[in-house]
Design goal:
The complex is a heterodimer of chains A (308) and B (475). With 308 residues, chain A is of the alpha+beta class. Helices cover 56% and strands 6% of the residues of chain A. In chain A, strands 1-2-3-4 form a four-stranded antiparallel β-sheet. Chain B is mainly beta. In chain B, 2% of the residues lie in helices and 43% in strands. In chain B, the strands form ten sheets. A four-stranded antiparallel β-sheet of chain B has the order 4-35-34-33, with no helix packed on it. In chain B, strands 5-6-7-8 form a four-stranded antiparallel β-sheet, with no helix packed on it. In chain B, a hairpin with a 4-residue loop joins strand 29 and strand 30. Classes of the chains: A alpha+beta (308), B mainly beta (475). Chains A and B meet through helix 1 and helix 2 of A and strand 10, helix 1 and helix 2 of B. Chain A: Belongs to the IER family. Chain A: InterPro entries: IER. Chain A: It holds the Pfam family IER.
Chain lengths: 308, 475
């Protein structure tokens, strides 16, 4: 890891200083000094790499925030009081299970780390309305992933649900509070399913869901399909998500589960791809850290990528 | 026996219980040289006193000749000044002779390359003496593009009594000549003349950083950023290219040559250092083009020290063989490394010159100090090495006794035969008395060039525009 503690300047200042040096060297007496300009270009490269890594890391953190935030917003719409109890229990479960099976080890550590990373985000706008709830919610998501690792879709239960045979997951730990509405977020397909009074409303849900029909493909970029098909439009922030995905997948028109996995693998390899191109081990550490953190939250079937 | 330590060093006090007499034996630590502990004393300083430094007077190279009798300096204005040591005064055998100006001449002038619209600086990058073969002295001096061979000769007699010329040189009217005489040589005031005997030009596209005379005394090499050329001292219109690291596509350039030197004894061997911190040893017998090295000296980078500036501080600014040819020394921004020619994996010794600067690299990058190219030198016995630092400090490392000392070249300590007091920089925290904190170092006062007499403990240290000469104290 580049030791920036000693550097009073941030990467951006270094970049501008370096560019200024290169520019000034053109007018220096005696002609352009090849050696000095080569060294300046190395500083430029190092600063740029560092800056880009920080940016990627920040975007990932923001992405996690947004995912959790959108879910939290939905939770809070439904039943804030029930939520608090439920979440407290669930978060307790999650972290306490950290020492259990090896499968749970990683997400538990990540989930406990997540709140920390959330707090370290740079943008002040990311004020979590219910930070405890959100981090616990994320923790919950992770726990559920682990249990549901065999299915392709992972469902996030905001509160207890009556038995809906949508997955084989065991949600027994959550069945403490009764409510008549369930919102489910599929973290793989990013489909939100609202279940109300025993009836399943699924808007553009993923394939494993029962009654799935609307094209999940349109899901990423057109959240409008939501609104047309259900009144229970969750308060997503579609623009933020789309922007994120646009950033990493600007040319992809259609997104389905396979494309999502591609995105993840692209991102995972993109990080280390950056690294291997420059052959700098410290950035490899940085890259792996960031990608690991995010990838771990994205589903059990991405574990292979995390492993490398 | 008591060991007493004060600011100057360690004092061994012998107490004889019988007679209660004290016999003091002073052993001053911290000054290197020659196996015995040396005290360095101020001898002379050359150059203007005022602080307003003209850029042309900035000293850019310092070099003793092979006997040590002559000391040459080159400056940014293209001038070469040669000092000669006075013969030892027989009435005062303790005092070594002083160095006085022997010759001054303009070696290089500013030039303009019209084809590339580039101005070529007249700054003297390096001076190298040739071994003396006759009464005259020869040296090579180089700027960025052109190397010149200068002959420095003395004239202390002149012919007088020409028949056709007056003494002032005017021609006489032949009709007025009535008698003939034979001109005779009469003594005159010593005159030292410098004349350019060879000009080796147009062989380097990039800036020349090194020249080195071969031990065969017939050839020499010159190195620029990407190429090393081999010359014959008698032939100026051609040279052989022996190293070329220019990539086919300049965008793929990753390193440049920073210094090159011939082995002191083996006329087929030379080394060149790179900006990546590696040194390559080449054998000219292997092939005509020595792109493929015989040995590669490289120390793996310490990953915990990685920073934005790792590449800059690992760039080697100077490489020097030891006199015996068994070792070589390299200087990078923060340290001096001694390499055994038989071991390529890592240096045998590493000395930190100013490690306290590691946390200041950002500001040193901003003010360009991080690009300063410090040189280094060996003493005659190869057991002490010396290099410069900031604040007009210079450092000596005694390899045998594992001691190092920091001394200062300043006008304040310039009283005749005044002993130099060791200096100390406090890295942080509590600053002791007489110590200097890192933040109060003057980074404009840098010692880049130093030279050590080949036989004696006499050193020449160049500050920005002054040349200091120090000698060891003779008792």
């Amino acid at each position: 890891m580049i030791n920036t503690m000693e550097c009073a300047m941030d990467a951006q200042s270094l970049i501008s200083i370096s560019l200024r040096k290169i520019h000034n060297s053109r007018t220096q007496r005696g002609g352009i000094k090849l050696h000095k300009n080569l060294l300046v270009s190395y500083v430029l490269r190092n600063a740029k790499q560092f800056y880009m890594n920080e940016k990627y890391a920040e975007i990932y953190r923001m992405q996690q925030y947004e995912e959790v935030m959108t879910v939290c917003n939905e939770i809070q719409e439904l039943n804030p009081l029930d939520l608090a109890e439920d979440i407290a229990e669930a978060s307790g479960d999650c972290c306490s299970q950290g020492a259990g099976s090896p499968l749970l080890m990683e997400p538990a550590s990540v989930c406990c780390a997540l709140p920390a990373s959330n707090h370290s985000a740079h943008t002040p706008q990311q004020q979590l309305q219910a930070p405890a709830a959100c981090s616990a919610a994320a923790a919950l998501a992770l726990q559920n992933e682990e249990v549901c690792k065999e299915t392709n879709s992972v469902f996030f239960r905001s509160c207890c649900a009556e038995a809906y045979p949508v997955t084989d997951c065991d949600f027994s730990s959550l069945s403490a509070v009764h409510c008549n509405k369930t919102t489910v977020l599929d973290l793989d397909t990013h489909v939100v399913t609202t279940v109300e009074s025993g009836y399943l409303h699924q808007d553009c849900c993923a394939v494993p869901c029962q009654g799935a029909q609307a094209p999940a493909k349109k899901r990423k970029f057109d959240f409008g399909c939501y609104a047309t098909e259900s009144e229970e439009v969750p308060d997503f922030t579609p623009c933020k998500r789309a922007r994120f995905e646009d950033f990493y997948c600007p040319h992809s028109e259609q997104l389905d589960t396979s494309n999502i996995s591609n995105l993840i693998s692209i991102f995972g390899s993109g990080f280390t791809g950056l690294v291997s191109r420059q052959a700098d081990s410290e950035f490899s550490l940085n890259g792996q850290f960031c990608s690991k953190q995010t990838l771990a939250s994205l589903g059990a079937w991405t574990r292979a990528i995390v492993a490398f | 026996m008591l060991l007493v330590e004060d600011g100057l060093g360690i004092c061994v006090v012998h107490l004889s219980p019988l007679s209660l007499s004290l016999s003091l034996s002073l052993s001053l630590s911290g000054a290197g040289g020659g196996g015995n502990d040396v005290q360095w004393c101020f001898s002379q300083v050359k150059g203007a006193i005022d602080d307003d430094v003209a850029e042309a007077d900035i000293i850019s190279t310092v070099e003793f000749n092979h006997s040590g009798e002559l000391l040459a300096t080159g400056d940014k204005g293209g001038r070469v000044v040669i000092f000669q040591q006075e013969p030892e005064n027989k009435s005062q055998p303790q005092c070594r002779g002083e160095y006085n100006v022997y010759s001054t001449f303009q070696s290089h002038e500013p030039e303009f390359d019209y084809l590339k619209s580039l101005e070529i600086e007249e700054k003297i990058n390096k001076i190298r003496w040739l071994p003396q073969k006759n009464a005259a002295q020869f040296l090579l001096s180089t700027n960025d593009k052109t190397i010149k061979l200068w002959k420095i000769s003395e004239r202390d007699k002149r012919p007088e009594g020409y028949n056709l010329k007056e003494e002032d040189g005017r021609y006489r009217d032949p009709t007025t000549v009535t008698t003939l005489r034979v001109p005779v040589f009469r003594p005159m005031d010593l005159m030292v003349e410098a004349s350019p005997r060879r000009v080796f030009a147009n062989a380097h596209t990039y800036h020349i950083n090194s020249i080195s005379v071969n031990s065969d005394y017939e050839t020499y090499l010159s190195a620029d950023d990407l190429r090393v050329n081999l010359w014959h001292l008698e032939i100026t219109d051609r040279s052989f290219n022996i190293v070329d690291i220019k990539p086919a596509n300049m965008e793929e350039l990753t390193e440049v040559i920073t210094a090159a030197e011939f082995h002191p004894n083996q006329c087929n061997t030379f080394v060149y250092s790179s900006s990546k911190g590696t040194i390559r040893l080449c054998d000219m017998r292997e092939s005509a083009l020595c792109d493929k090295h015989s040995k590669l000296f490289e120390e793996p980078e310490d990953p915990s020290n990685r920073s934005f500036f790792s590449e800059i501080i690992s760039s080697i600014s100077d490489v020097k063989f030891s006199h015996n040819g068994r070792y070589m020394m390299t200087r990078d921004y923060l340290s001096v490394k001694i390499w055994d020619l038989n071991m390529e994996s890592r240096p045998v010794e590493t000395y930190q010159v100013h490690e306290y600067l590691r946390s200041k690299l950002c500001s040193l990058y901003e003010n360009d100090c991080i690009f300063d190219k410090f040189e280094c030198c060996w003493n005659g016995n190869d057991n002490v090495v010396m290099t410069g630092s900031y604040n007009n400090f210079f450092r000596m490392f005694d390899r045998g006794q594992k001691k190092d000392v920091t001394l200062e070249a300043s006008r304040e300590s310039s009283k005749p035969r005044a002993v130099l007091k060791p200096r100390k920089v406090s890295a942080g925290g509590k600053r002791k008395k007489d110590e200097i904190s890192v933040d109060s170092l003057d980074f404009n006062k840098k010692i880049l060039h130093t030279a050590w007499h080949p036989q004696e403990n006499i050193i020449a240290v160049a500050t920005t525009n002054n040349l200091y000469i120090f000698q060891d104290k003779l008792n």
